[in-house]
Write a structure and sequence with these properties.
Blueprint (H helix, E strand, L loop, with lengths): L2 E4 L5 E5 L5 E5 L9 H6 L2 E5 L6 E6 L6 E6 L3 E5 L6 E4 L7 E6 L5 E6 L5 E7 L2 E7 L8 E6 L5 E6 L4 E5 L8 E3 L11
Antiparallel strand pairs: 1-2, 2-3, 3-4, 5-6, 6-7, 7-8, 9-10, 10-11, 11-12, 13-14, 14-15, 15-16
């Protein structure tokens, strides 16, 4: 398993991984009323196969319980789960191998870290679909390991192999800039 996320309501947990499947784990409606044995026996699961590649990250749309985004080895796709045959839509510009993916609450903005651990792209949803921009996050000498995006899509966080956490403004009206750079606590090797 390489990525997990809860649905906005908390009724489902989605997971993706090297088995090339998106799994949905449907949780009991009132888990607090159950003991752990009863709760685990009432979890049901389903999966969507046929992606044709390893899946690395998943993000749930908090405004639409049936829409999620999935990052794979070569692209990022959104999927509508409430269709008889779930429909996956490729996001233009996402043809790459991605290490990490995050989306805003309304899925109108997304960011992804490429497997080279240096390139970060941003997608914004407009009237004609998603358009992408390469972000200048100054990673020439620093390998990033993960990224995160605030629910409003205005702020991005990056963390490097050296343990450096950087916060970036992504507001469209403001220049992109680093807001904070605390010193690294310890250096780590990462893959």
């Amino acid at each position: 398993v390489t990525g997990i996320t809860f649905s906005h309501s908390g009724k489902s947990l989605f997971s993706v991984g090297g088995d090339k499947r998106l799994a949905e784990w449907r949780l009991p409606q009132e888990p607090e009323a159950l003991n752990i044995g009863d709760m685990t026996s009432r979890i049901t699961a389903g999966s969507i196969e046929g992606w044709g590649e390893k899946l690395y990250s998943v993000a749930a749309d908090p405004l639409n319980e049936n829409r999620i985004a999935v990052g794979g080895g070569s692209r990022i796709r959104t999927i509508e789960l409430d269709r008889l045959n779930p429909l996956a839509t490729r996001i233009e510009g996402s043809q790459n191998t991605w290490r990490s993916f995050a989306a805003s609450r309304d899925m109108r903005r997304a960011v992804a870290l490429a497997s080279d651990m240096r390139k970060v792209l941003r997608w914004d949803l407009g009237d004609n679909g998603y358009t992408w921009t390469k972000l200048d996050v100054e990673t020439q000498a620093i390998n990033l390991t993960n990224i995160a995006l605030t629910s409003d899509g205005q702020t991005m966080a990056t963390v490097s192999c050296a343990g450096q956490l950087k916060i970036w403004s992504l507001a469209q009206d403001a220049p992109q800039r680093q807001l904070n750079q605390p010193p690294a606590s310890n250096k780590k090797n990462c893959i």
